[in-house]
Each structure stands twice: as structure tokens, then as C-alpha cells.
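Help needed: design a sequence for this.
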């Protein structure tokens, strides 16, 4: 089995800003759900709470076709 990997970072998600609100959490969840819909699985995740905003970096993988 072969895997394709992708580094994920909350800073790359449109609409995500430094102030932290429910809209931003929804943006983060939508991005993670989009990864899941394309067949990716988040395999590593590190959250940093900065200025009340959930910032993270992680690693996702999906099986190569």
C-alpha cells in the first residue's frame, strides 16, 4: 500500500484569523471534513491555543490510487 501525505496548518485555511470565534471553528471543522471527504485521514495533530483561537499543525494521509 502506498500513501500520499499532506501537511495541514490552520494558517492556510481561508477565514481563519487570530481573534478566535465560532465562525473560525466552523471553518477549521469544514476544512478537516473536506480532507476526510477526499479520503484523507489526519494521523498527527498538534493544537496551540493562541489568543483564544484554535491554531494547529498536523499531518494527513490518503491511499494513493
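Sure. Designed sequence:
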Amino acid at each position: 500500500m502506498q500513501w500520499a501525505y499532506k501537511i495541514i496548518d490552520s494558517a492556510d485555511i481561508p477565514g481563519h484569523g487570530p481573534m478566535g470565534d465560532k465562525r473560525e471553528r466552523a471553518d477549521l471543522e469544514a476544512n478537516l471534513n473536506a480532507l476526510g471527504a477526499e479520503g484523507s485521514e489526519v494521523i498527527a495533530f498538534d493544537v496551540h491555543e493562541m489568543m483564544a483561537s484554535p491554531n494547529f499543525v498536523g499531518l494527513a494521509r490518503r491511499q494513493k490510487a
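The mean pLDDT is 82.
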